Amino acid sequence: MQASVNTSYLQSLGYSARDLVIPSSGGSSQCQPQITSSQVTFTIPYSGCGTVKQVDNDTITYSNVLKAAVSSGIIKRKKDLHIHVSCKMLRDTWVKTMYIANDTIEVTEVQYSNFHVNIFFYTSSSFSNRVTSSPYYVDLDQTLYLQAEILHSDTSLDLFVDTCVASPSSSDFTSLTYDLIRSGQSVQFTAAPWQQRRESGSPSSSFYRE
Q1: Looking at the structure, do residues 21 and 105 belong to the same domain, yes or no?
Q2: Longest dimension (CA), the chain
Q3: Is 60 exceeded by the pLDDT of residue 206?
Q4: Are residue 60 and residue 21 in the same domain, yes or no?
Q5: What is the pLDDT at residue 7?
Q6: Phi first, then psi: what are they for 193, rounded to 5°?
Q7: Which of 3, 67, 109, 144 has CA 20 to 30 A from 174's CA?
């Protein structure tokens, strides 16, 4: 995830661009920001630089903190700055909140997004020859092989197929459908679980029209 802070904002609080750091990074080079005349930009890995992962019912949250603090001394004349950065993987929604304490400014940024998933047809159960044509023309009762894969740098994620339906229309998956997988239970698919990948096989069929 990426976090950018305007240098003018830091200067308005009495800080320079080099004062802003990830305190739990341990000095790692990958945790250092890119500094320009207008912005300080951190590219924060999902696994590293002190990033914390929290799994809830509807979201997976990755969070970290950027800090700028006054130098040690007896007298403190300006506030410490803590910028809390979070990435919640769910849907495209932005929520911004700011907390101000007597000696600390707390800034929280939360972004909602979807995971990116690819799905492909393959010609055999070896899943070595991907079908590149669209639409994919097949014979009735021919076994179809599909692979779904989640695209994300967090290798600990598992892909679970909850529902898969067939429809005679590419734009309508509600009026007339046939369940292949429903609530995680295979109806027509033979599914093999993989970490970050699911591979399945199902016989092809055609919808009856009067």
Answers
A1: yes
A2: 87
A3: no
A4: yes
A5: 92
A6: -75, 140
A7: 144
